[in-house]
Fold this protein.
Amino acid sequence: MAGHPVDGDHWRGPFDDYRGFWVSLANRYADHDCAGLLIGDIGARHGMSEETRKYVDAFWKLIDEILNAVLFLMIGFAVFAVAFEFDLLVSGTLAIALALLGCFVAVAVPVMMLKPFRNFSAGVIPIMTWGGLKGGISVALTLSLLDGEWKPLILTATYVVVVFSIIVQGLTVTCLAERVGRAPELPDG
């Protein structure tokens, strides 16, 4: 019997028999993503008329709006899993500062390293740091953690960061962009 020995017993994971299937499925989707990234822009530019491009763009914008609505609905449902205790909310507030510091480092280091080779627009570091919105993936990953003593702390801190990001950062990134001299490009409508 195939399996992994655990304390002398044999344990079979739910995906042991299908490991090859899951790996091939992941590779297939990775291949499709790469092909889409490489071919998608060329096909849209040269293989579609202007009217077709408008319809395809409108379709994907609609899909994006629907998925965003579902995402925010799921984030709203996640509030029932959050423990609103004072010490956990303080930890969440500290997590906001840590998340902003992490975003700053993740943006500033590559920009500074690439500055000798590439010109960047004015205010790129503050705009990308403040505009680095965090959302549903963070909450979903946190909700998927196994129950344990640290899960309430991690979930509350994550939820506080996500709510801060959506409300505060989302509503003020335009003001920041205007302050550093980068007026946002608004869609034609």
